[in-house]
Design a protein that fits this description.
Length: 194
């Protein structure tokens, strides 16, 4: 899955109606609502939108016939394997009716055009893990984690050693934690954070 690097825009004119798509990355439903509030054009005829965060999604036709705007925008998001993305497509009516098929193509097409040209970033699922280890194992564990590209988020010291907080990619977590166990000969205490 991917998300967008930054906010992107695209415009099209279709049979005298002007369509503006604005897409951006979001973290949660609140940020989606804030994005939509900030990027809706009050003077436009329609401000249609869709967003997806994991299995949660919403869309709105904003007065267009049911299923002709929000669903095609959501289909454009899904068609490019995007997550944590919101897209608003604003229409200024040009006097020519497009019909249901025309609206679906116009809204979905404008959203897809915007998303195709946008710079994307891979979404990587991570786990927060704490590792409590002795001073004798600390330098070796830190060196091996760093060599694997694991960033240490925080480090605190105890009387006998240190506690490291790290963010691990879910797909390599098992192998990395096995390495920590091997390096410490089973003495390191690993705890998954929720």
């Amino acid at each position: 899955m991917f998300t967008l690097q930054r906010i992107e825009t695209s415009t099209q004119e279709i049979k005298k109606s002007r369509f503006l798509a604005i897409a951006g990355p979001i973290d949660d439903e609140q940020s989606a609502k804030a994005f939509l509030a900030a990027h809706s054009a009050p003077a436009a005829n329609h401000n249609c939108w869709a967003w997806r965060i994991g299995q949660t999604y919403r869309f709105n036709d904003d007065g267009e016939p049911s299923g002709t705007a929000g669903k095609p925008i959501l289909a454009a998001i899904d068609g490019q394997s995007l997550d944590r993305v919101v897209v608003a497509v604003t229409r200024w009516f040009g006097g020519v009716l497009l019909g249901s098929g025309g609206l679906i193509r116009a809204y979905g097409g404008t959203a897809a055009l915007c998303l195709r040209t946008a710079e994307k970033v891979e979404l990587v699922e991570t786990l927060r893990v704490t590792i409590a280890c002795d001073f004798a194992d600390l330098a070796l564990i830190k060196a091996r984690l760093t060599a694997r590209g694991v960033a240490i988020a925080s480090e605190s010291f105890t009387d006998t050693g240190a506690v490291l907080a790290i963010d691990l990619r879910k797909d390599v977590a098992e192998a990395t934690l096995a390495l920590v166990s091997d390096l410490s000969r089973g003495r390191a205490i690993v705890t998954l954070q929720s």
